[in-house]
Write a structure and sequence with these properties.
Elements (H helix, E strand, L loop, with lengths): L4 E2 L9 E5 L5 H9 L8 H7 L5 E8 L8 E8 L2 E9 L8 H15 L4 E7 L3 H9 L3 E6 L9 E6 L1 H4 L3
Parallel strand pairs: 5-6
Antiparallel strand pairs: 1-2, 2-3, 3-4, 4-5, 6-8, 7-8
């Protein structure tokens, strides 16, 4: 996989390194999660992901500060399908291509694993995330009413990596 330092397109962004989530990163990941999620995952939930064989969690860090987490991604690879469970970037670091970088890493992994499907849920009101996923070829396949709480629906998005992955 392409885990390592990657230069982003945006000139205001530092070089970003992607690496596997480690126990030492959990507090930073939970802080990012609590900054956006109405029902955030707990530290224990993220910790359990480290022990699940089909789960993979990445963190994004400035290349010159590998201990400083600015984003994370959690995915499952089960039965030839990838399910993106969570992807988030620290508020101050958004719109710098970090989410795009992590998503592109996930899609590269899906292609390398010959995954037949990449799927995810996204809050209908999260316009930025929906635009990112659409830019990579994801399509809405259904709606989950109340998934994020009363009156907050999730859109289920799918991508068939062999067909339409944009890189």
């Amino acid at each position: 996989m392409g885990i390592g330092a990657v230069s982003l397109v945006s000139p205001e962004s530092p070089s970003i390194a992607l690496r596997s989530l480690e126990v030492r990163d959990l507090d930073a990941v939970v802080a990012i999660e609590e900054g956006w999620a109405p029902s955030p995952w707990s530290r224990d939930t993220f910790r359990r992901e480290l022990d699940i064989p089909f789960s993979r969690s990445l963190v994004a860090c400035p290349h010159d500060a590998a201990e400083s987490v600015c984003g994370y991604l959690v995915r499952w690879l089960v039965a030839g399908e990838v399910h993106l469970l969570s992807l988030a970037v620290e508020a101050e670091m958004r719109r710098r291509g970090i989410g795009q970088l992590m998503l592109d890493e996930l899609l590269a992994e899906a292609r390398a694993e010959n995954a037949s499907l990449v799927t995810l849920e996204v809050d209908e009101s999260n316009v930025a995330a929906r635009a990112l996923y659409a830019s990579r070829g994801f399509e809405e396949v259904r709606r989950r009413r109340g998934y994020y709480g009363a009156g907050r629906d999730a859109l289920v998005l799918d991508l068939r990596p062999g067909c339409r992955v944009v890189s």
